[in-house]
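D-amino-acid transaminase, chloroplastic isoform X2 (Gossypium hirsutum), 295 aa
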Amino acid sequence: MYSSIFGGIVTDEAAMVIPMDDHMVHRGHGVFDTAIIANRHLYELDQHVDRIVKSATMAKIILPFDRETIQRILIQTVSVSKCINGSLRYWISAGPGEFQLSTSGCHQPALYAIVIEDKSLFDSKGIKVVTSSIPMKPPQFATMKSVNYLPNALSKMEAEEKGAYAAIWLDDDGFVAEGPSMNVAFITKEKEMLMPKIDKILNGCTAKRVLTLAEGLVREGKLRRIRVDNVSVDEGKSADEMMLIGSGVLVRPVIQWDEQVIGDGKEGPITKTLLNFILEDMKSGPSSVRVPVPY
């Protein structure tokens, strides 16, 4: 774990702590992001660092260091950990200070990072989702990746209580929005890849990469086109394929939404192909998405 409060990296789990008076702890005033560690490389680190910098700006948090220093610290933390496969999670907070509502008592912002080793493979088994009854965050907060994830946690718990993997949020107009920590996409009967607009939801780094890789399927004629648009519930439930997309699931096929079976109730072929594209991209993709870790 790296902590700017400690001023360095610690390897003792007992020392991996955050001050209770950190504004991120008692007021939720912090932002975070995650990057996958795959085969000695950080996948889409540049894209994720760009997003946390943007989130910090939206949350009115001054960066503790410049962008290049933040990225260097993150890479060094992974290097010290010796983790070959896993995830890097990192936070920028308003910093420790008083237990007040305002950040006026916070003397300096803080950067934290932690490396989590994970040797398990990403699951490609089809899952069930339900429609969330938990209100989604308004666009101002949904479009920034802040630590205020209570609605997300409650949505995930609601799904698990109903025997599902995740719950799908609908926006105020009734259109499909996103899952609790992932984007959602569909393959229509017309062989279009359809993804909801990102103006009211988090701009997913993995989702953007999947859209880029899916262009190859358009060129091959396996997809007619890619469309980012408003998606009605009926349109989503009547699709041939449905998938969840995010750094925690990569591309996960959905075979049932509420009581509606998606397609033929089996993992869709295009969803499987897109998962394979991402897995291959993590292994041998361009330097723009793979940053080597100097162990």
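Residues 269-284 form the longest helix (16 residues). The CA atoms of residues 35 and 88 lie 5 Å apart. ok done for today
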